[in-house]
Amino acid sequence: MSETTEQTGGGESFADLFGSSDRSFKEGEIARGKVLSIDNDFVQIDIGFKSEGMIAAWEFMTEDGEITVSVGDEVEVLVEEVENEDGQLVLSKEKAERLKVWDEISRAYENEEPVEGTIVARVKGGLSVDIGVKAFLPGSQVDLRPVRNLEALLGEKAQFKIIKFNKRRGNIVLSRRALLETERKKMREGTLATLSEGQILDGVIKNLTDYGAFIDLGGIDGLLHITDMSWGRINHPGELFHVGDEIKVKVLKFDVEAERVSLGLKQIQPDPWIDAGMRYPLGMRIRGRVVSLTDYGAFIELEPGIEGLVHVSEMSWTKRVKHPSKVVSIGDEVEAVVLDVDERDRKISLGMKQIEENPWTVIEERYPVGTRVSGQVRNITNFGIFVGLEEGIDGLVHVSDISWTEQVKHPSDRFEKGDEVEAVVLKIDKENEKFSLGIKQLEANPWDDIQKKYTVGSEVTGPISSVTDFGVFVRLEEGIDGLVYSSELAAERIENPAEHFKEGQEVTALVVKVDPNEQKISLSIRAVNDKAERAALKEVAAQQSASQTTTLGDLLAEKLQAQKVGETSE
Description:
This protein is of the alpha+beta class. Helix content is 16%, strand content 37%.
């Protein structure tokens, strides 16, 4: 028995199993052989040739150094050389396997069949995939959407489509995206065939934007707008969801031609506005969180989906709130009272000032008319000054109530903000929340004695305080001026008083009329030298008490007219 026969263990030679030993082989051909012997360096293979081939043992070892074959096993090997320089048959198991892999890859490429592989490395422009040989997976072909972190895919197994194959150059380009698109297309067709408005579906969040979330319904994306996510207020979809979350949604609208789907989440939840009027009756005290501020008020969240508005006019009884941010801030917990509920328009009106008593209801008790009060000047206008009596309660001193005698052109001539002033309560208007004060009322009205002091017909002397187009003003005492009209400056009317009179010039005149209500004294320089007119004035003064309805000026005019008529008749 030969050595080869002994090592097969059964008396059967390779020729007995596979045919004649004089079979011819070509270099580059894959042949089947039988393991004859194994040692530390080589594995002897009989392929039915006239001589056996030797293959390095490492080609049969695992990464741990273990031999993967046993004597008698059949293996496929590549015939590298039929006879080398030493006359030996040169075989290779590794090259046979590699060639077989290339053949399988070629067949998959031609038949457009997917291949399985493992992502093993990150390379320039994409990933390296082991499909039996190394292949290139471009970054753009990894998924349906760009993948930012390619390293996270290392070690993953997946199916790929061969989109480029060149065996001679050893170039293979893969695409995972192509398979996903095919799969998605099939899913899309199935989804579109069954999709209808009102349907509730399971979906996966693919993307989040400022205005909503895109939901994968199975091959087709639908938009879940931010306003349809919750009955409550949401600033950004990220407050509720993350990419990859699975959720149930309702199809609100489906445009078949454009293949656009509008989705809703809150529509499959109870509407909080149903019976809101029963849950929030008028006058109910509530607590809520400030969620939004506008120029006209603050929105308070009472529960998810229910917000009430506190108008700026309902924030304080006494303060003039220019902007709600002066009173509250977003996130504040506040207490308020329900003023009105409109379920139809989804509106609730709230009031914060109603939590406290309205100070204007008791203002008359604290400040009766005639009470002397004091406070600081808080504001100055062209029509008066506002005096602060207490927090939120200001009284107005009108410009006409500043002085009995002085004509105040603008309150800023007399006062500054922060000045401490004293005044008298004149009037309280609770309905319009107005408080009237007077400063001049602190003293007696000097005009009550003016009429007695400056009687009609009496002679007065004083400096001219101002010259106008219609006459001159004469200073009688501090704060008291008399007016001499142009017609009373001389015997003949003077059209331009400034040509004849100057400020500071001393003049003497007769009192013609005193009107304490209008706080006016009329004078006449012309009457000083007119004895008849002087006599008429004295007579008018004597008749003053007898005539209650006729003014002194009217009586004087009648008397002078009568005298002139008499003189003419003579």
